[in-house]
Amino acid sequence: MHWNTLATALALSASGADALLRFSCSQLVVERLDPLVNPGMAPSPHLHQIVGGNAFNISMDPTTPPPSLATCTTCTFAEDFSNYWTAVLFFRAKNGSYHRVPQKPNVGFEAATGGMTIYYIPYVGNTKQTVTAFQPGFRMLVGQQGYRTKAEASKFRQLTYTCLKDPMTRSGETMDFPTAPCKAGIMTNVRFPTCWDGKNLDSPDHMSHVVYPTSGTFENGGPCPATHPVKIPQLFYEVIWDTTKFNDKALWPTTGQPFVWSQGDETGFGNHGDYVFGWKDNALQKAMDSNCADCPQLKSQTISTGNKCTRKEQVTESFDGWLEKMPGGVMAGMGNMKRKD
Ligand SMILES: *[C@@H]1O[C@H](CO)[C@@H](O)[C@H](O)[C@H]1NC(C)=O
Ligand SMILES: *[C@@H]1O[C@H](CO)[C@@H](O)[C@H](O)[C@H]1NC(C)=O
């Protein structure tokens, strides 16, 4: 299998990268939990889809990192017990009913049960920079579930959507939801900031301990500010939503595009992703230092082994079929935070 070539080709078309760790993490569980933003709250306000290690829980104590608790992971790098999650996409039909949009595997990972593609990028092109891997207990959030305008969402760089004309489409990213049907689905792209303050594993808003480069981007070697001097890997999620069975415009509301995030966002500007670091020992640092793609020095498992790792729902509620409201009673248009910052 020319995995390496494929990964490189995809990354090239995605961002101009030529060095990266790209791998599949199958679905672990879909439920209303958010141990980062709403620890201890079961159910949390909106639905998430989660991949990674099976230590995912209602609360996740940063002093007991996932590798010490997890017994399996849905990711193909078997030493990665991190958890990665996003909101869940719903379709809202003309009559106002909602239907969950299924996820589908990415190119090269067709055997996966949905889930996500995860990237950790150490550097790009000829920019020979070194990155410091995340430390045990590290976690972060990017995006703001309550944002509904481009002006708000512009605070974040590179939280985007790709309207897939075919599974290989990697151009034409937008900050809001695509406005016309996408033949091969909608891909959400979640890229995290890449500069860390070097001290705090988390912060009250789960964001202020990390920032973007002061100028340019991670890809072109943009420098980190003095307040956040430590360059961390570019963490990047791709999630593919199989919107194809909702492409008949006769079913669409007359008000516009029909997709809505589980927190009630019908604009797309509320795109957000959460991360709880959970690599075993220094496996991630090793991979970043050697700039490997298939990384034979890391322990791997097949996608089908990853598919077998699941976590029993702790919040049991049904969200299959047509619904009057999304889980938590959320409806399109709700949840606009109107933040003051
Ligand atoms: C989840 O948390 C509960 C306590 O809230 C604990 O009893 C349980 O062992 C945890 N499960 C895992 C897999 O860590
Ligand atoms: C709303 O529309 C969908 C799609 O046509 C249909 O399957 C569903 O049954 C409808 N729901 C109600 C409550 O009529």
UniProtKB/TrEMBL annotation:
<protein>
    <recommendedName>
        <fullName>DUF1996 domain-containing protein</fullName>
    </recommendedName>
</protein>
<dbReference type="Pfam" id="PF09362">
    <property type="entry name" value="DUF1996"/>
</dbReference>
<feature type="domain" description="DUF1996">
    <location>
        <begin position="34"/>
        <end position="279"/>
    </location>
</feature>
<keyword id="KW-0732">Signal</keyword>
<dbReference type="InterPro" id="IPR018535">
    <property type="entry name" value="DUF1996"/>
</dbReference>
<feature type="signal peptide">
    <location>
        <begin position="1"/>
        <end position="19"/>
    </location>
</feature>
